[in-house]
Each structure stands twice: as structure tokens, then as C-alpha cells.
Amino acid sequence: MTPDYSNNAAEHARRSAVIAGGVNSNVRLAGMPVPLTFTRADGSRLWDVDGNEYVDYAGGMGPMLLGHNHPVVNDAVVRAVARGQLFAGQTTLEAEFGELLTTAIPWVDSIRVGLTGTEMDLLAVRIARATTGRSKVIRFVGHYHGWLDPLFVNPAAAVPAGGQPPLTPGQSVAAAADVIMCEWNDVAALDAALGGGDVACVLMEPIMCNTGLIAPADGYLQAARELCTRSGALLIIDEVITGFRFGLTGAQGTYGVHGDLTVYAKAIASGFPLAVLGASADVLAAVGRGEVNHSGTYNAAVSSLAAGVATLRHLVDTNPYPDLERVSGLLADGINQVGQRRGVDLVADYVGGSMIQTRFGEHRPMRSRADFAANSDRDRLSRLVQLLQDRGVRPTSRGLWFVSTAHSDADVAETVGRLDEALGAL
Ligand code: PMP
Hints:
By secondary structure, the chain is α/β, with parallel strands linked by helices.
């Protein structure tokens, strides 16, 4: 029951003649049988150029928290851009957005906005270096903080002895020399890495979302917070994925620990390019004085800010979180039950919020990247993702599922039924 992908193949060939690899983000190279070409999306659904319909859990890789084409966001953007798009100056949307965000998140009272999570992570590191006068950055194996030097590491390569980041061709070895790679969820490893007294910041995802879906061990975030404070390093929490998916205050609110700097992106603006660096006013003061540089032609463009204001206001006004967690839990339970009924070791890891990681392995919470690697048969997972796509269900290529407020109980029931068929064909 392979659907027709012939128009997708033709579009991919056409694109590949003029676009390297036929995609504009290397993550999308993984598309099977070719990277797909979509024509339309609405709510929980997505359609491709062959007319195939999908229940979409890729969610634009996370931003589509309210589902596709949300009318409140679309209306706000259309109304705003009718008055112009980019002014090389400020708009009233900026204060409105900043007021909404700082009201929602108690530990953020000052922000800067940009376009991508990548650049806000780099700005956070720059501020940490300026604040501490130190240069080293501790980051963690299996976490992701964007594609640029020096924070990108080759996820396929082992970390060499001495904690030097494994790089991909063309990356700056000099820039990477300031990065210390560390195992996450390991207090002793972090303590040792901080020992040199030359660390400007510790940068982490509060829940590991870029290698499986792994919760922090009990007390780990608290310990990391204390170690940073004691050593004078700033703690940067990257909530690019978790932000606004675990209630308004994200994973930091859930675990009761917060960083000196927080990065938000993705779910904050429903698919429009907007990323935020948030902190206390004193941490951002040097940026505000013009001493630490942060610039960008498109920063705070009208469309992005209108989308951000509308998304945030909608989340504050409607509090979709109890229902979103209920639907996410329903889907995770459904996946686990189907696996058990079929007698296969399919697991849905769910740690709250609105993401689920599927894998083949032992049925227990994952603790580390190594634990995940030993408990996730990647080949079988890829095959399952393909079989699901053939049956109209689209998680991300690595088996992470983003649930949105547009997903209904009926969507979940349909998804679980299709999964049952897919497992039958595996
Ligand atoms: N941080 C995390 C935790 C991410 O998952 C990502 C993207 N998946 C980024 C940063 C980079 O964000 P962007 O793609 O917007 O540059």
C-alpha cells in the first residue's frame, strides 16, 4: 500500500537541479522516498503534491504548537503587514511582545529578539563571555544549539578524549577549541569540567530533546544551577524546543530551576521566524548600552512580531495546556499499547508537555545518550516512519512527535489505528 509519490519525485528532481540536494536545510535530506513537497496545511493536516494527506506531527519541527494556519495568528499577521513590513526602526508590537513575555515568565524581565534559535544561542554565549571575561563554553553530548560555529558538533561522531567537539568539514577548529563537551545528567562530569575556572557559561537543553526525549535526573538541574553559581559561570537554558510546550514557563517552570539566560524560538510564533533571548535586566544591560553587539536587518520584522504577539496572547488567554497534555498522553499511551498488543518493543517516551519520542528498545525512562543509543533501533525506526508516512501519519524523521492544540481525540484514534497497520507491515 505504497501511495503515489510520483509528483514528489518530479518536484524533488526539479529542485535538485537548482538547489543543492533539493532541500534548504540538511535535516530535510532524510525525507523518504524523496524529500516531500507540500502544497497546503491546515490544523493537524498536511497535503503533498501527489494529494496525499497526513496527520502531521512534524509540526514544522516544533513551531506549529497551535496547528497549521491558525486563524488568530494569520489574521493578526495579515492585518499587521497591510501597514508595511520593515521600517529600520521600531514598532509598537515590540513593547507589546516584550510586556506579554516578561509578564508570563517571572525570571525574564528584559529581552532581545532575532530570527533563529541558532543566533540567539550565539548571542547568549557572547553575553556570557562579556559578563565573565572568560572564554570557555560547556555544552553536552546529544544536545543541539544550531548549525553555526562553534556550537555545532557532528552528532554522528564520537567525542574525542579531552572533550574536544567533533566537527564537520569547514568548521573552525579555533572556535571549537573554546568548547568543552560534557555528558549530560552527570553532576560529577560537570563539576570536573567547571574546575578550570575559565568557563563563561554552561549551555544546555533542560530536557534532552535532540537525542531521544530524556528528562533531567532528579536534582540534576538544581545541581547544575548551584555549580554554575559557585564557579561564576552563567547558565544558559536553551528552551528552543521545550519553550511554550510545557506551559508558558516551559521546562524551567516545570523543574523549578532557571538559567541566567534563556533562549526561546519555535513555538513562540507559529511558524514565523522569531527567536528570543530573555534574562534579567542587568544581564542584558551591556547589550542595551551598545557594548555587546547584537544586530540584524530583519530583527523584529512586523510579520514575526505580529505572529509572536498573537501566539503568546492566545496561549495566555486560552490556557490550552491541560488539554494538550491530555491529548499527548493519550497518544503516548496509544502507541505503547499498540506495541504491546503486537508484541514488539516499540516505546513512546513521554515526559510531559507536547512531544513524544518513539523508539525500539527497553520499556523504561531513558537516562543518558548512551542509554538511548542502546535502546533505539534506528533502522527499524526509520522503516516505521516510512510505513507511517505511507499510511498518512507524519512524525519527524527521527521519531519525535510534536502534538499541537489542533490534534483531536479523533486524530489520535486514527493515528493509533494507522500505527497498528504499519507495525503489521514492519
Ligand atoms: N536549540 C535547540 C534545542 C534546537 O532544537 C534548535 C533547532 N532544532 C536550535 C537551537 C536552533 O534553532 P534554529 O533552527 O531556529 O536556528
